[in-house]
Design brief:
Number of strands: 12
CATH superfamily of the largest domain: P-loop containing nucleotide triphosphate hydrolases
Order of helices and strands: HEEEHEEHEHHHEHEHEEHHHHEE
CATH architecture of the largest domain: 3-Layer(aba) Sandwich
Distance between the termini: 44 Å
Shape: globular
Helix content: 25-40%
Mean pLDDT: 86
Number of domains: 2
Strand content: 15-25%
Low-confidence stretches: 1-9, 21-26
CATH topology of the largest domain: Rossmann fold
Strand order of the largest sheet: 6-7-8-3-9-10-12-11
CATH class of the largest domain: Alpha Beta
């Protein structure tokens, strides 16, 4: 299958998915994040005294409905990965709440949290570093089944064969080791491992960024297909706005640890409101050369501020062309400007 045909299929599938999402407002919220904060302390000196903290995730709130895909986008270092890890509690948050199916994960510990983990699984960015080189594909995929006591013996082998078929690999590949696979095949193994415990929520952390463009299309197509067949809920973390557009029902834009805009995928690309979102979209390549040459590109001034000492007020005001004096002191909160559209900017 060519790159073009893969992208055409993705667009067609995505349009069909959009029709289903029109009914999503009536669906229950599977994941709810409330005022999530994750800071990393900085220690220095002989006595290792705390001298500061990196504000990786700084008071974010959003929800994901059951069966939908929420894209989380932003520049490298804005806190996307930390947010995903904090939601799964792979990284202990500093404060805030994460509700999964009505239960607060932050308050969970020990056995209760371990049982809940089978319902939430990650797909990591690097398909090689995330796989144990000393385990074959069958053992990697089957391990969650044994850890969560979901199957044993022949049942594990049978489930592994089903999962390999599901992600487009031959069951005969179960005996191979990670170094014997290509990058795309390794990522398929990572997807099969994430699916082995039959989760309902998957965090895809830059799941296609390490792959060639043609392979990216295949993996995105696979994720969309599995999402529809298994009614999966995704948090799709990426810095590539072109990829996010095709797979996401809604998109949250993140800047310096804060979410600045949330809306539907179609609305974000047609009617962006936050200055940061507008600048990001202006850098996305357009296939039509004539349109690409005539459109306005917004080049942001300065560098991204340090998360150790972020700016007061709106974190984007140091680079924003629309900034006024109030932006330097007034804290920006997400506010509803339209149905399914939230923006953290008082100029909007």
């Amino acid at each position: 299958m060519t790159v073009t045909s893969v992208l055409v299929f993705m667009i067609q599938t995505n349009l069909a998915k959009r029709k289903q999402v029109k009914m999503a407002e009536q669906q229950e919220k599977l994941v709810e994040v409330e005022n999530l904060v994750t800071y990393f302390p900085i220690f220095s000196g002989i006595l290792q005294k705390k001298t500061g903290e990196v504000k990786a995730v700084d008071d974010i709130s959003f929800f994901i409905r059951k069966g939908e895909t929420l894209g989380l986008v932003g520049e490298s270092g804005c806190g996307k990965t930390t947010a995903g890890r904090s939601i799964l509690k792979l990284q202990e948050p500093t404060s805030g709440n994460v509700f999964f199916a009505g239960q607060n994960l932050i308050e969970m510990k020990g056995e209760a949290l371990r049982k809940m983990r089978s319902q939430m699984q990650p797909i990591f960015q690097d398909p090689f570093a995330s796989l144990n080189p000393r385990m074959n594909a069958g053992s990697i995929i089957g391990e969650p089944l044994e850890v969560h006591n979901l199957a044993k013996g022949k049942e594990v082998r049978k489930r592994v064969e089903e999962l390999l078929n599901m992600v487009g690999l031959s069951p005969a590949m179960a005996a191979r080791y990670p170094h014997e696979f290509s990058g795309g095949q390794r990522q398929r193994i990572g997807i099969a491992r994430a699916l082995s415990a039959s989760p309902s929520f998957i965090v895809c952390d830059e799941a296609v960024s390490a792959l060639d463009v043609s392979i990216q299309g295949q993996i995105i197509k696979l994720l969309m297909k599995l999402g529809e067949e298994l009614n999966l809920t995704y948090l799709f973390i990426s810095h590539d706005l072109s990829v996010v557009r095709h797979i996401s029902d809604r998109v949250a834009v993140m800047y310096l640890g804060k979410i600045v805009e949330i809306t539907t995928s179609d609305n974000l690309y047609k009617n962006p409101k936050h200055p940061y979102t507008i600048s990001l979209l202006s850098a996305v390549p357009i296939p039509d050369p004539k349109v690409d040459r005539t459109r306005e590109r917004i080049v942001l001034k300065g560098d991204v501020p340090s998360p150790i000492n972020p700016p007061s007020g709106c974190p984007f005001h140091t680079r924003c062309q629309m900034a006024v004096e109030e932006c330097k002191t007034m804290k920006q909160e997400l506010k509803t400007i339209d149905n399914e559209h939230w923006v953290a900017c008082h100029r909007v």
